[in-house]
Amino acid sequence: MDEILYYDRYAKETRTEKVYGDKALRWTYGTIAGKISLNALVKRAAFSHWYGWRMDRPSTREKIAPFIQEYELDSSEFVRDVDEFANFNEFFYRELKPDARPIDSNPNSVVFPADGRHLCVPDLSQCDGLFVKGEMFDLDTLLDDHSLTNRYAAGSLLLSRLCPVDYHRFHFPAAGVPGPTKLINGPLYSVNPIALCQNIQILATNKRCVTELRTEKFGNILLLEIGATCVGSICQTYADGQPVEKGAEKGYFRFGGSSTITIFEPGRIRFDRDLIENSQNQRELYGRVGDRMGVLCE
After folding, report:
1. Of residues 109, 156, 160, 258, which has the active-site annotation?
2. What's the CA gap between 277 and 102, in Å, rounded?
3. Residue 30 is part of which domain span?
4. For the chain, what percent of residues have pLDDT higher than 70?
5. 0.85 exceeded by pTM
6. Has 81 been annotated as catalytic?
7. Which 3 state secondary structure label does DSSP give 263?
8. Which terminus, N or C, of the chain has the lesser number of Cβ atoms within 10 Å?
9. Is 258 a catalytic residue?
């Protein structure tokens, strides 16, 4: 895979992704030596925990300012000043000011749960592939629950990919009452398209968390957080059984790229046109937390 292209909803143009750690990714997934290293070490939790520990060291503060400059981040959105972060990990899972991510006010809308690059599947029973035509992960493996698989087999799915440069807190796409989170252990492969184009099943087998959100308008929504290489941990900040508003924080990822998956019951949501059109072309759409991704089916 050469360049990674995505559609920027705000600029209304196709852009080339600037990949953090591009050379290391291409070596790991594109060379024989890299693939040996991947299976022997990189995919294992111990490697990611070690890397997360490194990002907690005080010396990593020196990486923050160059990172902000290199990836053109807007530090005025941060709750804390740049010099207040004790290490790179604190900066990585930073909080943003509420007005930096306003929540769509339409009572019949659902919103993106994370900043990132998104792909949608309006009907999982007729999916033609995500990053490559004909290539889709196995839903039963992903959910590890046959009853859930049967309920959502013809449902709608949103895959949200968070790059290391993105805001790394994830949020509720609709108001409702969340249940407990179920942890399903697995390896920690990269979720970058460079890796996913070689093996889309990574999304279904990586370490993941599953939460069911009960809503009045949209039925029960499945919310999944997918771990990946160098993700120190998936941290949940919500309270099980307590009602949440649309756009409320659910949790955050510590250092590393990662993904979330949102699955709706059949016939509940109509995704926005730009999201559908780009997804049909296996091209991700960039959108931010709180912006509309679709509306209630009437």
Report:
1. 258
2. 25
3. 1-298
4. 84
5. yes
6. no
7. strand
8. C
9. yes
